[in-house]
Amino acid sequence: MKEDKASSTAYTVVQGILHTKNNPQLSHLIEEETINSYTKILSSTFEGLKRLEELHSPIKNKKLPFLEWLLMPGITLNYVLRKKFIEENVLNAIKNDTTQIINIGAGFDTLAWRLSLQFPSLNFIEIDHPATNQEKTKAINKTSTISSNLYFIPADLSKISLEKALKGCQGFQKKQKTLYICEGVLMYLDEIHVIGLFDSLRNLTGKDSLFIFSCIEPKESDKNNIRTLLYTYLKFKNERYLWYIRDTQIASFIKKNNYTLIDMADSESYRKNYLPSTYNGTLHKGEYVVVAKVD
Ligand SMILES: C[S@@+](CC[C@H](N)C(=O)[O-])C[C@H]1O[C@@H](n2cnc3c(N)ncnc32)[C@H](O)[C@@H]1O
């Protein structure tokens, strides 16, 4: 991460979602309310406006599909599908008495913002690198007031533990049934910080806490359709991947860290559950979203 600059990939995720909304075969996957919340965020920052302009320009809007084809085929649709899977699991957890949702490395995701308005009695916390956090809170403050059940914590998780970051937040309630989300983030942390995060969640809110996270196959895996050029691109952006895990190793990895695997989603399950049978576009391969529970 560049210390003083909001995450470029966090912007790319939002831009990809807005781009997908323009595809008539896929637009039903994204609610209008979600689009409005993302548009509000992008409209409020300099980089966001640039990204919106790219989407609306007949020439510049070719850049995103070109970069996608060049670096990570199918990735923009993957952002939409993984968020759909995560949102379904969060709503399901809320139905089953989860009262606190904590999004780690939230980027410009709007789930906590939207749900904090829909569920005023629940607690929502977002943690992100200070540069991204600052840009996001500025953007939300410009468009609406932040409700009193939504908290933002600036923290660089490669420098400070999650435990320390959360214990300093007045909104954090140790005794509440908690679900943590860590989407598109663990691959940017060293394994030691990934394991530290698993430990922190367990220590913070204990047994039955839920953890939804995404992870990726190693570079050399044949289950992954990432192009080699992406790794050079990320190096240039200073957002290198540091942690990988094979899908076959996830269950044992989380068991070793005292969690139980509840569910796992990948491009094939997304295809089955969310896409029309006629859809024949490329799907991103090599990223999994895992739902796990603290033992
Ligand atoms: C690819 S973006 C994903 C954003 C969001 N979770 C999503 O999926 O829409 C990666 C996020 O991880 C955050 N991140 C990366 N390294 C971090 C660190 N060391 N500490 C805190 N956040 C970090 C970035 O600021 C960014 O928001």
Structure at a glance:
With 295 residues, this protein is an alpha/beta fold. The chain contains twelve helices and seven strands. It has one domain: Vaccinia Virus protein VP39 (Rossmann fold), CATH 3.40.50.150.
Write the layout of secondary structure elements.
Elements: H1 8-21, H2 32-43, H3 46-56, H4 63-71, H5 75-95, E1 100-104, H6 111-118, E2 123-128, H7 130-143, E3 150-154, H8 162-167, E4 178-182, H9 191-205, E5 210-216, H10 228-236, H11 247-256, E6 259-265, H12 267-274, E7 287-294
Parallel strand pairs: 1-2, 1-4, 2-3, 4-5
Antiparallel strand pairs: 5-7, 6-7
This protein binds S-adenosylmethionine.
Residues 1, 7, 9-10, 13, 105-107, 109, 128-129, 132, 156-158, 183-185, 188 line the site of S-adenosylmethionine.
List keywords for this structure.
295 residues, alpha/beta, Rossmann fold, 7-stranded mixed β-sheet, 12 helices, 46% helix, binds S-adenosylmethionine
How would you sum up this structure, described in words?
This protein has 295 residues and is of the alpha/beta class. The chain has a single domain, classed as 3-Layer(aba) Sandwich (Rossmann fold). Helices cover 46% and strands 15% of the residues. It is built from twelve helices and seven strands. It has helices spanning 8-21, 32-43, 46-56, 63-71, 75-95, 111-118, 130-143, 162-167, 191-205, 228-236, 247-256, 267-274; strands at residues 100-104, 123-128, 150-154, 178-182, 210-216, 259-265, 287-294. It has a seven-stranded mixed β-sheet with strand order 3-2-1-4-5-7-6, with helices on both faces. Helix 7 links the parallel strand 2 (123-128) and strand 3 (150-154). It is globular and about 50 Å long. The two termini are 33 Å apart. The model has no long low-confidence stretch (mean pLDDT 94). Residues 1, 7, 9-10, 13, 105-107, 109, 128-129, 132, 156-158, 183-185, 188 line the site of S-adenosylmethionine (SAM).
